[in-house]
Amino acid sequence: MKASVSTVMNYMEELAPSSIALPGDPVGLQIGNPESPVDKILVALDPDRDTIEEALKSKAQMIISHHPFIYNKLSSINEACSSGALVAQAVRSNLHIFSAHTNLDVTPGGVSYQLAEALKLPIRKTAVLEVTGSKKLLKLVVFVPQGHEDNLLNALSRAGAGQIGRYSHCTFQTSGTGTFMPSADANPFIGSQGQLEKVSEIRLETIFPAASRRAIVNTLIENHPYEEVAYDLYPLDLEGEEIGLGLIIDLEKELSLNHLVGKCLGNLETKTLRYWSNGREGFKRIAICGGSGGSLIEHAARRNAGIFISGDFRYHDLKDAQAMNIALIDAGHKATELPVVSYLKDYLKNKLEAEGYGVEVNLKASTPDSWSYVQG
Ligand SMILES: [Zn+2]
Fold first, then answer.
1. DSSP H helical segments within the chain, as ranges?
2. How far apart are the CA of 67 and the centre of ligand 1, in A?
3. Comparing C-alpha atoms, which of 113, 50, 115, 46 is closest to residue 335?
4. What is the pTM assigned to this prediction?
5. Are β-strands 137-145 and 197-209 bridged in parallel, bridged antiparallel, or unpaired?
6. Is residue 376 part of a domain?
7. Helix, strand or coil for residue 73?
8. What is residue 364's DSSP assignment?
9. Which of 158, 180, 327, 342 is at a distance of 20 to 30 A from 290, taking alpha carbons?
Protein backbone atom coordinates (compact mmCIF):
# COMPACT_ATOMS: atom_id res chain seq x y z
CA MET A 1 0.00 0.00 0.00
CA LYS A 2 1.30 3.42 -0.98
CA ALA A 3 1.35 6.21 1.60
CA SER A 4 0.26 9.76 0.89
CA VAL A 5 2.55 12.75 1.15
CA SER A 6 0.41 13.92 4.10
CA THR A 7 1.00 10.62 5.97
CA VAL A 8 4.75 11.18 5.71
CA MET A 9 4.26 14.81 6.74
CA ASN A 10 2.34 13.67 9.84
CA TYR A 11 5.18 11.33 10.84
CA MET A 12 7.68 14.15 10.43
CA GLU A 13 5.44 16.44 12.48
CA GLU A 14 5.38 13.88 15.30
CA LEU A 15 9.17 13.75 15.32
CA ALA A 16 9.89 17.46 14.88
CA PRO A 17 6.77 19.66 15.13
CA SER A 18 6.91 22.68 12.81
CA SER A 19 5.70 24.84 15.72
CA ILE A 20 9.09 24.51 17.47
CA ALA A 21 11.15 25.73 14.47
CA LEU A 22 13.00 28.98 15.07
CA PRO A 23 11.14 32.11 13.86
CA GLY A 24 11.19 32.67 10.10
CA ASP A 25 12.51 29.21 9.24
CA PRO A 26 10.54 27.88 6.24
CA VAL A 27 10.03 24.27 7.35
CA GLY A 28 7.47 21.76 6.07
CA LEU A 29 6.25 20.87 2.59
CA GLN A 30 7.95 23.32 0.26
CA ILE A 31 6.94 21.81 -3.07
CA GLY A 32 4.22 19.25 -3.67
CA ASN A 33 0.73 18.04 -3.00
CA PRO A 34 -0.21 16.46 0.36
CA GLU A 35 -2.82 14.26 -1.35
CA SER A 36 -0.38 12.57 -3.77
CA PRO A 37 0.64 8.93 -3.28
CA VAL A 38 4.24 8.02 -2.42
CA ASP A 39 6.03 4.69 -2.61
CA LYS A 40 9.64 5.87 -2.68
CA ILE A 41 11.34 8.51 -0.54
CA LEU A 42 14.88 9.88 -0.70
CA VAL A 43 16.30 11.35 2.52
CA ALA A 44 19.13 13.87 2.17
CA LEU A 45 20.90 16.66 4.00
CA ASP A 46 20.61 19.10 1.09
CA PRO A 47 17.82 19.27 -1.50
CA ASP A 48 20.29 20.35 -4.20
CA ARG A 49 20.63 19.48 -7.88
CA ASP A 50 22.49 16.29 -7.05
CA THR A 51 19.71 15.11 -4.72
CA ILE A 52 16.95 16.00 -7.20
CA GLU A 53 18.74 14.07 -9.95
CA GLU A 54 19.19 11.06 -7.69
CA ALA A 55 15.49 11.19 -6.71
CA LEU A 56 14.41 11.33 -10.35
CA LYS A 57 16.81 8.57 -11.39
CA SER A 58 15.65 6.25 -8.62
CA LYS A 59 11.98 7.20 -9.25
CA ALA A 60 11.50 8.57 -5.74
CA GLN A 61 8.49 10.90 -5.57
CA MET A 62 9.42 12.62 -2.32
CA ILE A 63 12.58 14.17 -0.87
CA ILE A 64 12.93 14.70 2.86
CA SER A 65 15.76 17.10 3.59
CA HIS A 66 17.20 18.82 6.64
CA HIS A 67 18.15 22.05 4.90
CA PRO A 68 15.17 23.84 3.32
CA PHE A 69 14.75 23.73 -0.46
CA ILE A 70 13.46 27.31 -0.62
CA TYR A 71 15.09 29.31 2.18
CA ASN A 72 14.83 32.90 0.99
CA LYS A 73 11.50 34.17 -0.29
CA LEU A 74 11.17 33.79 -4.06
CA SER A 75 10.07 36.77 -6.11
CA SER A 76 10.18 34.85 -9.38
CA ILE A 77 10.83 31.40 -10.80
CA ASN A 78 13.11 32.41 -13.62
CA GLU A 79 14.75 29.41 -15.22
CA ALA A 80 17.67 31.54 -16.32
CA CYS A 81 18.82 31.44 -12.63
CA SER A 82 19.99 28.19 -11.11
CA SER A 83 17.57 28.40 -8.15
CA GLY A 84 14.59 29.12 -10.44
CA ALA A 85 15.56 26.28 -12.76
CA LEU A 86 15.77 23.86 -9.83
CA VAL A 87 12.33 24.84 -8.48
CA ALA A 88 10.83 24.54 -11.97
CA GLN A 89 12.44 21.13 -12.46
CA ALA A 90 11.06 19.86 -9.13
CA VAL A 91 7.56 21.10 -9.93
CA ARG A 92 7.58 19.72 -13.47
CA SER A 93 8.83 16.37 -12.22
CA ASN A 94 6.00 16.15 -9.64
CA LEU A 95 8.55 15.90 -6.83
CA HIS A 96 7.38 16.58 -3.29
CA ILE A 97 10.03 18.24 -1.13
CA PHE A 98 9.69 18.45 2.64
CA SER A 99 12.26 20.00 4.97
CA ALA A 100 12.70 19.72 8.73
CA HIS A 101 15.35 22.27 9.64
CA THR A 102 15.56 24.11 12.98
CA ASN A 103 12.62 22.04 14.29
CA LEU A 104 14.89 19.02 13.83
CA ASP A 105 17.78 20.95 15.41
CA VAL A 106 15.87 21.63 18.62
CA THR A 107 13.70 18.55 19.03
CA PRO A 108 14.80 15.94 21.61
CA GLY A 109 16.44 13.13 19.65
CA GLY A 110 17.27 15.56 16.82
CA VAL A 111 20.48 16.83 15.22
CA SER A 112 22.78 17.13 18.24
CA TYR A 113 21.44 13.99 19.97
CA GLN A 114 22.24 11.99 16.82
CA LEU A 115 25.68 13.59 16.65
CA ALA A 116 26.29 12.55 20.28
CA GLU A 117 25.15 9.01 19.47
CA ALA A 118 27.36 8.84 16.37
CA LEU A 119 30.42 10.03 18.32
CA LYS A 120 30.05 7.04 20.69
CA LEU A 121 30.93 9.15 23.70
CA PRO A 122 30.85 7.72 27.23
CA ILE A 123 27.86 9.88 28.26
CA ARG A 124 26.81 10.25 31.88
CA LYS A 125 24.32 13.09 31.47
CA THR A 126 23.08 15.47 28.78
CA ALA A 127 21.28 18.83 28.89
CA VAL A 128 20.18 21.27 26.20
CA LEU A 129 22.88 23.88 25.48
CA GLU A 130 20.60 26.80 24.49
CA VAL A 131 17.01 26.27 25.55
CA THR A 132 14.54 27.65 22.97
CA GLY A 133 11.31 26.33 24.49
CA SER A 134 9.63 23.24 25.80
CA LYS A 135 7.42 20.54 24.34
CA LYS A 136 3.71 21.34 24.64
CA LEU A 137 1.74 18.72 26.52
CA LEU A 138 -1.88 17.55 26.36
CA LYS A 139 -3.86 15.61 28.94
CA LEU A 140 -5.98 12.69 27.82
CA VAL A 141 -8.90 11.47 29.92
CA VAL A 142 -10.62 8.31 28.70
CA PHE A 143 -13.33 6.08 30.16
CA VAL A 144 -12.70 2.35 29.72
CA PRO A 145 -14.66 -0.66 31.06
CA GLN A 146 -12.99 -2.28 34.09
CA GLY A 147 -10.59 -5.07 33.11
CA HIS A 148 -9.56 -3.37 29.84
CA GLU A 149 -7.54 -0.53 31.37
CA ASP A 150 -4.13 -2.29 31.34
CA ASN A 151 -4.35 -3.16 27.66
CA LEU A 152 -5.19 0.46 26.84
CA LEU A 153 -2.52 1.79 29.19
CA ASN A 154 0.16 -0.37 27.55
CA ALA A 155 -0.89 0.61 24.02
CA LEU A 156 -0.96 4.33 24.87
CA SER A 157 2.43 4.08 26.57
CA ARG A 158 3.94 2.36 23.53
CA ALA A 159 2.64 5.26 21.42
CA GLY A 160 4.40 7.80 23.68
CA ALA A 161 1.82 8.76 26.33
CA GLY A 162 2.48 8.68 30.08
CA GLN A 163 6.15 9.65 29.94
CA ILE A 164 7.26 11.88 32.83
CA GLY A 165 11.04 12.30 32.99
CA ARG A 166 12.56 8.88 33.51
CA TYR A 167 9.18 7.24 34.24
CA SER A 168 6.94 5.62 31.66
CA HIS A 169 3.34 4.30 31.94
CA CYS A 170 2.33 7.25 34.18
CA THR A 171 -1.47 7.38 34.59
CA PHE A 172 -4.01 8.11 37.29
CA GLN A 173 -7.09 5.92 37.51
CA THR A 174 -10.37 6.24 39.39
CA SER A 175 -13.40 3.99 39.13
CA GLY A 176 -17.00 5.02 38.57
CA THR A 177 -20.09 4.23 36.59
CA GLY A 178 -20.54 4.97 32.91
CA THR A 179 -24.00 5.04 31.35
CA PHE A 180 -25.17 4.77 27.75
CA MET A 181 -28.05 3.52 25.64
CA PRO A 182 -27.11 1.88 22.31
CA SER A 183 -29.27 3.07 19.38
CA ALA A 184 -30.96 0.70 16.90
CA ASP A 185 -27.94 1.09 14.56
CA ALA A 186 -25.32 0.47 17.25
CA ASN A 187 -23.22 -2.65 17.62
CA PRO A 188 -22.42 -2.41 21.35
CA PHE A 189 -19.51 -4.20 23.02
CA ILE A 190 -21.58 -4.24 26.23
CA GLY A 191 -25.39 -3.87 26.53
CA SER A 192 -28.33 -4.08 24.16
CA GLN A 193 -29.98 -1.71 21.73
CA GLY A 194 -32.54 0.58 23.35
CA GLN A 195 -31.65 -0.35 26.93
CA LEU A 196 -29.98 1.93 29.43
CA GLU A 197 -26.67 0.37 30.42
CA LYS A 198 -24.66 1.08 33.58
CA VAL A 199 -21.08 -0.14 33.43
CA SER A 200 -18.20 -0.10 35.94
CA GLU A 201 -15.58 1.98 34.16
CA ILE A 202 -12.15 3.36 34.89
CA ARG A 203 -11.40 7.02 34.26
CA LEU A 204 -7.80 6.84 33.01
CA GLU A 205 -5.81 10.05 32.70
CA THR A 206 -2.38 10.57 31.26
CA ILE A 207 -0.28 13.14 29.41
CA PHE A 208 1.45 13.17 26.04
CA PRO A 209 3.34 15.58 23.74
CA ALA A 210 0.89 17.65 21.66
CA ALA A 211 2.78 16.71 18.48
CA SER A 212 1.75 13.06 19.00
CA ARG A 213 -1.96 13.89 19.12
CA ARG A 214 -2.88 12.09 15.91
CA ALA A 215 -0.93 8.94 16.85
CA ILE A 216 -2.28 8.87 20.42
CA VAL A 217 -5.92 9.34 19.38
CA ASN A 218 -5.55 6.65 16.69
CA THR A 219 -4.01 4.27 19.25
CA LEU A 220 -6.82 5.06 21.68
CA ILE A 221 -9.55 4.31 19.15
CA GLU A 222 -7.83 1.11 17.94
CA ASN A 223 -7.27 -0.31 21.42
CA HIS A 224 -10.47 0.70 23.20
CA PRO A 225 -13.15 -2.02 23.17
CA TYR A 226 -16.10 0.38 22.66
CA GLU A 227 -17.60 1.24 19.30
CA GLU A 228 -17.77 4.90 20.38
CA VAL A 229 -14.95 6.01 22.65
CA ALA A 230 -15.63 8.75 25.21
CA TYR A 231 -12.52 10.81 25.79
CA ASP A 232 -11.41 14.38 26.51
CA LEU A 233 -8.27 16.28 25.58
CA TYR A 234 -7.11 19.19 27.72
CA PRO A 235 -4.36 21.72 26.94
CA LEU A 236 -1.87 22.01 29.82
CA ASP A 237 -0.10 25.10 31.07
CA LEU A 238 2.99 23.06 32.00
CA GLU A 239 6.56 23.14 30.76
CA GLY A 240 7.27 19.82 29.02
CA GLU A 241 10.68 18.46 28.08
CA GLU A 242 13.20 21.24 27.33
CA ILE A 243 14.07 21.73 23.69
CA GLY A 244 16.85 23.74 22.12
CA LEU A 245 20.10 23.95 20.23
CA GLY A 246 23.16 21.83 21.00
CA LEU A 247 23.94 19.70 24.01
CA ILE A 248 26.05 19.95 27.14
CA ILE A 249 27.43 16.50 27.86
CA ASP A 250 28.97 15.28 31.09
CA LEU A 251 31.24 12.35 30.27
CA GLU A 252 31.72 9.26 32.41
CA LYS A 253 35.45 9.88 32.28
CA GLU A 254 37.81 12.62 31.18
CA LEU A 255 38.79 12.49 27.49
CA SER A 256 41.78 14.25 25.94
CA LEU A 257 41.62 16.54 22.92
CA ASN A 258 43.35 13.83 20.85
CA HIS A 259 40.80 11.28 21.93
CA LEU A 260 37.90 13.60 20.99
CA VAL A 261 39.52 14.37 17.63
CA GLY A 262 39.84 10.60 17.09
CA LYS A 263 36.16 10.12 17.96
CA CYS A 264 35.21 12.68 15.28
CA LEU A 265 37.49 11.27 12.58
CA GLY A 266 36.62 7.67 13.44
CA ASN A 267 32.84 8.04 13.62
CA LEU A 268 31.84 10.92 11.33
CA GLU A 269 31.95 11.08 7.55
CA THR A 270 34.98 13.31 7.32
CA LYS A 271 38.65 12.72 6.75
CA THR A 272 39.77 16.14 7.94
CA LEU A 273 38.96 18.55 10.73
CA ARG A 274 40.51 21.53 12.46
CA TYR A 275 40.77 22.31 16.13
CA TRP A 276 42.03 24.89 18.57
CA SER A 277 43.55 23.61 21.80
CA ASN A 278 43.28 25.69 24.94
CA GLY A 279 46.06 23.63 26.44
CA ARG A 280 43.86 21.64 28.78
CA GLU A 281 44.78 17.99 29.23
CA GLY A 282 41.33 16.47 29.51
CA PHE A 283 37.66 17.29 29.28
CA LYS A 284 34.82 15.93 31.38
CA ARG A 285 32.15 18.44 30.32
CA ILE A 286 31.88 19.10 26.60
CA ALA A 287 29.44 20.94 24.34
CA ILE A 288 28.35 19.75 20.90
CA CYS A 289 26.10 21.10 18.18
CA GLY A 290 25.49 19.56 14.76
CA GLY A 291 25.81 22.03 11.86
CA SER A 292 27.03 25.53 12.48
CA GLY A 293 27.49 26.21 16.20
CA GLY A 294 29.47 29.46 16.26
CA SER A 295 26.65 31.43 17.90
CA LEU A 296 26.61 29.00 20.84
CA ILE A 297 30.24 29.36 21.96
CA GLU A 298 29.29 31.74 24.74
CA HIS A 299 26.54 29.40 25.97
CA ALA A 300 29.05 26.54 26.00
CA ALA A 301 31.60 28.58 27.93
CA ARG A 302 29.00 29.85 30.40
CA ARG A 303 27.93 26.26 31.09
CA ASN A 304 31.57 25.38 31.86
CA ALA A 305 32.20 23.17 28.86
CA GLY A 306 35.95 22.88 28.29
CA ILE A 307 35.58 22.13 24.59
CA PHE A 308 32.95 22.67 21.90
CA ILE A 309 32.53 20.29 18.95
CA SER A 310 30.56 21.67 16.00
CA GLY A 311 31.11 22.84 12.42
CA ASP A 312 31.58 25.98 10.36
CA PHE A 313 33.43 28.04 12.98
CA ARG A 314 34.47 31.44 11.60
CA TYR A 315 37.60 33.43 12.43
CA HIS A 316 35.69 35.59 14.91
CA ASP A 317 34.21 32.49 16.55
CA LEU A 318 37.76 31.32 17.18
CA LYS A 319 38.63 34.72 18.66
CA ASP A 320 35.59 34.48 20.98
CA ALA A 321 36.56 30.94 22.01
CA GLN A 322 40.11 32.06 22.75
CA ALA A 323 38.82 34.95 24.86
CA MET A 324 36.64 32.51 26.82
CA ASN A 325 39.32 29.79 26.88
CA ILE A 326 37.12 27.08 25.42
CA ALA A 327 38.75 24.63 22.99
CA LEU A 328 37.10 24.07 19.59
CA ILE A 329 36.83 21.12 17.23
CA ASP A 330 35.40 22.02 13.83
CA ALA A 331 34.41 18.70 12.28
CA GLY A 332 32.42 20.32 9.46
CA HIS A 333 28.80 21.34 8.98
CA LYS A 334 27.98 18.35 6.80
CA ALA A 335 29.77 15.67 8.84
CA THR A 336 28.15 16.80 12.10
CA GLU A 337 24.66 16.78 10.55
CA LEU A 338 24.79 13.56 8.53
CA PRO A 339 24.02 11.38 11.59
CA VAL A 340 20.53 12.92 11.87
CA VAL A 341 19.93 12.29 8.16
CA SER A 342 20.48 8.56 8.50
CA TYR A 343 18.40 8.60 11.69
CA LEU A 344 15.56 10.23 9.69
CA LYS A 345 15.78 7.49 7.10
CA ASP A 346 15.48 4.77 9.76
CA TYR A 347 12.70 6.63 11.57
CA LEU A 348 10.54 6.96 8.45
CA LYS A 349 11.28 3.43 7.25
CA ASN A 350 10.27 1.92 10.61
CA LYS A 351 7.20 4.13 10.99
CA LEU A 352 5.89 3.37 7.50
CA GLU A 353 6.61 -0.35 7.85
CA ALA A 354 4.88 -0.54 11.24
CA GLU A 355 1.77 1.07 9.77
CA GLY A 356 1.72 -1.40 6.87
CA TYR A 357 2.84 0.92 4.07
CA GLY A 358 4.96 -0.44 1.24
CA VAL A 359 7.23 2.58 0.93
CA GLU A 360 10.93 2.34 0.13
CA VAL A 361 13.00 4.87 2.06
CA ASN A 362 16.56 5.46 0.90
CA LEU A 363 19.45 7.58 2.02
CA LYS A 364 21.05 9.80 -0.60
CA ALA A 365 24.31 8.28 -1.79
CA SER A 366 27.20 9.86 0.06
CA THR A 367 29.25 12.36 -1.86
CA PRO A 368 32.86 13.23 -1.13
CA ASP A 369 33.60 16.44 0.74
CA SER A 370 33.35 19.25 -1.79
CA TRP A 371 36.44 21.09 -0.50
CA SER A 372 39.94 19.95 -1.28
CA TYR A 373 42.59 20.61 1.33
CA VAL A 374 46.27 21.22 0.71
CA GLN A 375 49.12 21.76 3.09
CA GLY A 376 51.85 24.17 2.11
ZN1 LIG B 1 22.81 22.71 8.74
1. 5-15, 49-57, 82-92, 102-106, 111-119, 149-158, 213-223, 257-267, 297-302, 315-324, 333-354
2. 6
3. 115
4. 0.86
5. antiparallel
6. no
7. coil
8. P
9. 158
CA 57–ligand 1 middle distance (angstroms): 25
- Which residues lie near ion ligand 1 (Cβ < 5 Å)? 291
- CATH no. for residue 256? 3.40.1390.30
Domain that holds residue 42: 3-101+337-363
User: What's the mean pLDDT in 319-346?
Assistant: 97
Q: How far is the CA of 292 from the centre of ligand 1 (A)?
A: 6
Q: What is the pLDDT of residue 240?
A: 82
Residues 223 and 356 placed together within one structural domain of the fold: no
Alpha-carbon torsion 26, 31, 34, 39, what sign?
Answer: negative
186 and 166 both lie in a single domain? yes
CA 198 / ligand 1 centre spacing (Å): 58
Query: β-strands 172-180, 197-209: how paired?
Result: antiparallel
The confidence score (pLDDT) of residue 202 equals 98
Q: Are 9 and 84 part of one and the same domain?
A: yes
CB 181 within 8 A of CB 195: yes
What is the 334 CA–ligand 1 centroid distance (Å)?
Answer: 7
CA–CA gap between residue 274 and residue 261 (Å, rounded): 9
Looking from the CA of 331 toward its CB, the CA atoms found within 13 Å total: 29
Q: Are residues 221 and 182 in the same domain?
A: yes
Residue 129 · residue 202 · CB < 8 Å: no
- Given a contact cutoff of 8 angstroms between Cβ atoms, the answer to whether 240 and 136 are in contact is yes
Residue-wise pLDDT for 18-51, tens only, equals 989 999 999 999 999 999 999 999 999 999 999 9
| Closest by Cα among 157, 152, 129 to 142 | 152
Write the CA distances from 101 to 5, 168, 210, 350, integer angstroms.
Answer: 18, 29, 19, 21
Contact 288/331 with Cβ under 8 angstroms? no
